[in-house]
Amino acid sequence: MLDADLKSQLREAQTQTDIFKILKQVNSTDLSSSDYFFISRTLNKTNVESSLKIAYFSNYTIAPLPSFIEVQSAFHTIGVRSYVGEYNQHYQEILNPTSSALSFKPDIAFLLLSLHELCPTLLNSFTSLTDQHKLDQKNVILEHIVDWVNLTVEKTNATVFVSNFLQPTFPSLGIADSQQGYSENEFYIELNLALQKKFRENPRVYIFDIDKLAARYGKEGAINPKMFFMAKVIWHEKFLPTIAQEFIRYITSFLGQTKKCLVLDLDNTLWGGVIGEDGIDGLKVGTGDPVSEAYLAFQYKIAALKNRGVILGICSKNNQADALEVFDKKVDMPLKLTDFSASEINWEPKYINIKNIAKKLNIGTESILFIDDNPVECSLVSQALPEVTTVQLPADPALYATILDNILVFEKFNVLSDDRNKAQQYSQNEQRQEEKERIGDLNTYLHSLETKIKIRLATDQDLPRVHQLFSKTNQFNLTTIRYSMSDIEDFHKNEQDSIIVISVQDKFGDLGTVGLCLLKNQEHQLVIDSFILSCRAMGRGVETALLNYVKREYLSGHPSLKLIGSYIPTNKNMPTKDFFEAQGLTLITENSSGERYYEMLSDDALEIPCPWINVID
Length: 617
Hints:
Number of strands: 19
CATH class of the largest domain: Alpha Beta
Helix content: 40-55%
Radius of gyration: 27 Å
CATH topology of the largest domain: Rossmann fold
CATH superfamily of the largest domain: SGNH hydrolase
GO molecular function: acyltransferase activity, transferring groups other than amino-acyl groups
Organism: Acaryochloris marina (strain MBIC 11017)
InterPro entries: Acyl_CoA_acyltransferase, BF1531-like_N, FkbH_domain, GNAT_dom, HAD-like_sf, HAD_sf, HAD_SF_ppase_IIIC, SGNH_hydro_sf
Oligomer: single chain
Structural class: alpha/beta
Largest sheet: 9 strands, mixed
CATH architecture of the largest domain: 3-Layer(aba) Sandwich
Pfam families: FkbH_N
Protein name: FkbH domain protein
């Protein structure tokens, strides 16, 4: 619970940022319901620097869930403002062009429906319905939701989250339910599965699996029957923090705040025991005993993270030869040395090694989550690199895999082919770096790569990757504008806008889609709204080839057209500061914030040679 001193600090806070700093002293799992309400009220009184706007639509009473989500978001330094729709008015509020819901202009629209209002006959008389009637009712429910979602996508720029339906804990026919031709259990499974399939291909709609969440928590404890009959409140107040914590996974992904890299210790983290003391035969990982199997399960969880695009790194105080020998001889471990894209195995302080890993991978330290069993090492890293999320493992290795399950910052709405190939791509980058060091001369090295690029207008299938690049790219991003999927879809449909994407391959492998340029045609001006390149493709002229394409295809031969570009500085995009000047654009103005504005006339649109790059169709 919040003590008097913390409450006093929160009362005096003037901004969201002040509250975020104060909450770093608090463990969110220790909060009571009254603490949540207190923090929520405080948040809503402060000055708002930025906020994510979430609109809730429901046919049951969802208060005070929005307050719990606001507070959990604050623990992750995310400001949230909420709009709660009128009871059972979700359709009317979207249909009415002057409604408060539409005026709110939500970033996220969250639909939570109960069958108590939507289809009471189904709940109350399931056993008396024919199988055909049950199927008809299922289709009516799905049609209602699909129509509302389509309307919301059309009328707003919001990304839509749809809660699925809670499967009854006790079917109407009891244990005989499973023997029925179309059982109650089967109905709810099919309903939730159909809901998932309906929106699988829609990049602006996602299912919030509240049935799974309630099952994890305990359905009987999640529901509050008394409050439902009194005020149509379904969820028990004690369950709301669990919903809010789960929702952070969705918000993190929506905002592109997913961590890119998991860095791990070795001894008593990846395996049980200390290689320098216990030797390889004394290490615990594998089958045959509970401790070894716990470490084995942990490694499988880590491997699953790698397969969804999380980069793996090793940071261990050890003799390198001893540590590497474990990977050579423990062949039954799920994780191989090749699964790790960077490793620092030495006796240097771990915060220095984590910085080195970030440098090797060309990512910021804020993109790293570090796991270690040693509280001293965790404390030192937290103090030296507060932007790194540091997780200390508990004493019992049986809990390690669960720790990974409860980490919220590796979530992505979509796992694309670029994500699945990430470890391989970073391994190929290491080969490129070795080649560069071996050759020495930069020009010779660039020619040796045999780089091939393909530049084209984005298709519908490219849009999820385009969204990723907008959300996650920081270093080579001239304006760092974060566009939603709705914005990107609008650009894609607008004939005056062009989303140009570039993919790269060389003799070491395929880098995938690594960059984009968003062009806006505004009368006699061609505006480069955004120019983005993934960090793994920097330093080889790919960005020059992309701008050459813009000059050639959009500017040359149009004497009345002027190319406009801007650079908006951030803490991370310094590598792009002089890019436009290097490409021949003229600096027009620079303001006190360091923002620069450039232009280029058609007659001056000379391409910058990069003969080591081959453009393919």
